[in-house]
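User: Some background: our group keeps a shared notebook of sequences we're curious about, and every so often someone picks one and asks for a predicted structure to add to the entry. Today it's my turn. The entry only has the sequence so far, pasted here. Could you supply the structure so I can complete it?
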Amino acid sequence: MDPQRWRSVEGLFHAALERGPEARQAFLDVACGGDTDLQRQVELLLAKEKEAGSFLETPAIRNMTDTETATGALLGREFGPYRIVSPLGTGGMGEVYRAHDSKLGRDVAIKILPDEFARDPKRLARFRREARTLASLNHPNIAAIYGLEESGGMDCLVLELVEGETLHGPLPVPTALDRARQVAEALEAAHAKGIIHRDLKPANVKVTPQGRVKVLDFGLAKAIWRLDENQDLSRAADKSGEETLSGDIVGTPGYMSPEQARGKEVDERTDVWAFGCLLYELLTGKRAFHSESNQDTMAAVLEREPDLKTLPSKTPAPVRELVRQCLQKDAGRRLQRISDARRTIEEVQHGSKRWRVAAVATAGLAMVAIGAALWLRGPVRAPDRSLPKIPASVPSAELTQKRLTFNSSENPVGSAEISPDGKYLAYSDPAGIHVRLLSTGEERLIPRPAGVPAGAFWVVDSWFRDGTQLLADTFEVGGQKSIWTVSVVGQSPRELRENAKGHKVSPDGLHIAFSPLGASDEMREVWVVGSQGDNPQKVLAVGENEWLTRVQWSPDGQRLAYIRTQGSSDQSKGSIETCDLKGAGRTVVVPADPSLSDFWWLPEGRIVYESGDSNDGNLSQIAIDNRAGTPTGKPKHITEWAGSNVGNLSATADGRRLVLRKQTYQFQVYLGELAAGGMRMKPPQRLTNSEANEWPTAWTSDSKAMWIASNRNGTYSIYKQGISQQTSEPVITGLPDIPFFRLSADAAWILFVASPNNPVPLMRVPVSGGLPQLVLEIRNLVDFRCVPAPASLCVISEMSPDKKQLIITAFDPVKGRGRVLRTIENDPPHPYTSGLSPDGSTVAVSHAEEPRIHIRLLALSGGSDREIDVKGWPFITSIDWSPDGKGLHCVSHSPKGNTLLYIDLQGNAHMLWQSKGGGVNWSVPSPDGRYLAILVTVTNSNVWMVEGF
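Assistant: Of course. Here's the predicted structure to add to the notebook entry:
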C-alpha cells in the first residue's frame, strides 16, 4: 500500500472511530465515494480495532493480504491436543487463534509466537523460563496461561479464551470504579509475584458476559521481547496510530510511563501509571495522553499534565486525587503500590454518602423486589437453592450477546424492554425507570408519579410505537397497583387504571392489553382498552386453578398470545396459547411446560420463548402462522446457556435484536470475623471471586486456610486456599459430582462424597493430595462429621431404609464403619440437619419443618437429651457447633431472606448477618473460633441483547 493510499485509509479509520458503531457504516458509504477497496481496508481496520483485546496490535499498515493467507494455512493444524479452529487476530506479539482442546473438551486461545524465536535459541529458552513464571499467576481477574506447545518448528502459547468485549469508556462512575477495582486486584496479585504487566491498556482488558474483568497478556512484553537492553523510546522512530510497539520498542504510546518511554528500569509503578491512564479513560472516554503521532504522544507523556477537568462532575474527590497521584511523572512521587489504589476505590464504593443511601434503600426494598419480580412475571419458578450442577456457560455459536446493564446484586434489574426502532432501552431497578440511548449510553431516570410511595416499584411494561411513550406499572407490596402512560420526553405520567397490571401496547399503538387484579393479585382475565384508557372490552377469562401471564400481541395486531398456567404454585405448568380479539379461535402453540414463563412473537412468524430449569434458562423457538395463531413447525432449542434464568423478552419491530433479563445464581465463599464470643460478626468479605461456583466445608487445623470445592475448570475439584491469599492450589481434581467433604479427626485425611448414587461412597485422600480410596458406603446419607482430639471422633448420620429413623454411627477413616451410637425416631418422616459437638458427646439436630421450631441436643453416650426453643426464627438449618461448645451457628430460612445466626444453648438467637443480593446457605467455623466461612448464593439480574437468532 503506497503512503498516499495509507493516509486516506488512516484518516477515514480515525474519523469512523469518532462516530458511534451504528453511524459508521453510513459515514463510510458517503466518505469512500464508491471506492469499494478503500472502504474494505477501513472496515478491516475497524474490525481489527474491535478484536484487539486478545492480542497486541501490530502497526496498522501491515500487509493484510499476507496475514489472511497465513491464517488460512493454519486452520485445522494441531499443536498437541489443540486443534486450530478459527483466527482471532494478528499482533506484534504473534497471531492468535481459537483452538479446541480435545483432552478437556474446551476452547482455548493459541498465540503463535513471532518468527524471531525460531532463529534465536537463547531467546526461546529465556522465554520459556518467563512463561513458567507467568503461568503461576492464578487469579479470577487474570487470563490464565495454560502451557507452551511446539509443533513442526513453530512455538505457541496456550491461553485462556476470554469471551466478551474489551474495556472502554466512558462508563457511569460506579461501573467505571467496579471495572478499575478488578483491574487493580489483578495487578496486585501479579505484583505480589514480582510480575509487571508493562503494557496495560483498555485493549488488553476484557469484560466477560458475566461482568468479570480479565486482564490479558500479563508480562508477555518482557517474556517475548528483550528488555534487558533499555532504549529511550521517546526518541524512537515515529509511527502512526495507537499501536503497540514491538521488536526494539515495547509498550503502547499513551499508556507508557515516563520512565518506560525513556528506557529506564521499570517496576510496579509503571503499571500504576498505566492504571491511572486506564481509570481516566474509563471515566472520560478519552485518552489521558494522545496526539496524531507516537512521537507527539510520548512527548505529551513526558512534558504535559492530563486535563483532570474533563473528569465527570460526579467523580468523587478521592477518585480525582487517585488519578492525579497515579499520573505523577516522577515515579518517586507517584502512588507507590497498586494496593493503595484498590483500597481507595473500595472505600469510595462502600463509604460515600451516595453509596450508603443506596445500600439502606436496597435493604428495605430487597424483599419487595422479590415480590415485584414475581408479580411482573406471574408465578415464577423459585431458584433452586440446592447445590446445582452448573457447567461453564456455552453460548450458541450463531448468536452474539452484549450486556447492556451492569447492576450489582444489591440493585437488580426488575424489567426491561427495547424500543421498536432499537434506539432506546427502558429498564427498571429499585431507583425507578431508566431510559438509555443505546448509541451513546446517555441515560435519564423517570421519577415515580407524584403521590406514589417511594417504596413502590416503578416498572416497564411496553413501548408505544412512536418511541416517545411507555406503558408502565406502579406496584407496592400489599398496596397500590396502577397502570400509567409515561412520556420519555418530559411530560407528566398519566394514570390509566387502578388495581390492574399492564401488558403490551398493540403494534399500531391504538390499544393496550391489561389484566384486572384479584384479591391475591392473580391475573384471570385479559381486557383491551384504547390508548387513552377508553372503551374497555373483556377478551378472555380462565377457570379455577388457572391464571394468565405475559400477554402479547400478534405482529398484525389481530390476535393475542398468552401463557395460561394450571396447577398449584409448586407444580404448575404453562402453555402458550392464542385467541382473536373476541376470545374465540383459541389455539395451543406450545403445550404445557413447567419451565414456561416468558415469550415474544416475532414479525416473520416465530415465537421465541424461555425454556429450561431454574439454573439453565434457555431460549427455544417455534414457527407460527401469524394470522391463524397455529404452530407450523416443531420447537427448536436455540441457546445452550447455563447457570442463568432468562425472561422479560422483547424485540425490535424488525425482529433482528432481542433483549432479555438474565438472572444468574452463583455460589461464592465469604469470610466473616467473629467478635463478642461469637455473638457478633464484622461485615463479611468475599474470599472467592471466580465465575464458577465455590463451596466451603473444611478448615485446616491452624485456621489459616480452608478447603473449597469448585467447578472453576469445568469439572468438580477440591482446592486449598489461605484466608489471606487470592490464589488456591488443587488437591483433588476431576470428580464426577459436587464434592461434600470434611477433615478427619486427626487432620490427616480429606473425607468426601462426590456421587449421585445411593448408597454413596465415602472416600478419603491425604491432605497433601493423592489418589482417592474408599472408606465405606452410606445409604440415605444426611451428614458426616469429625471432631479433633481429645474426642477424635467421626460419625455418620443416615436415614433408615423406611426413612423412619435417623441412625448415628461412628466410623474410622482407615478401618471403616464402627458401632451405632444413637437411633432417633423420625415418624412421620422429616429431613434432618445435624451437628457434632466439639467434645463428641452430643449431636444437635433440627427438623427442616416443624410447627414449633426447636433444636434437640442428643447425648451419644450417657447424659440426658435437651431441647432448645428458638423463638422468632423459622426453618433452622445448617447446624455447626462453635469450637468452644457454647453455642451453635445456624441459618434461618424465611420469606425475608436467609439469616446467619448464633444460638446459645439457652435458645437466645443473635443475628450475625443477612446478605443483600444473595442468600446465606451455610457456615463453617474455623477451629480457633475466630472466623466463619460462609456459603452465599450471589444473585445478579441484568439486561442483555442477543442478535443473530
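Suggested note for the entry: Residues 485 and 494 are 5 Å apart (CA to CA). The chain has five domains: 1-54, 55-62+75-350, 365-379+411-541, 542-655, 665-940.
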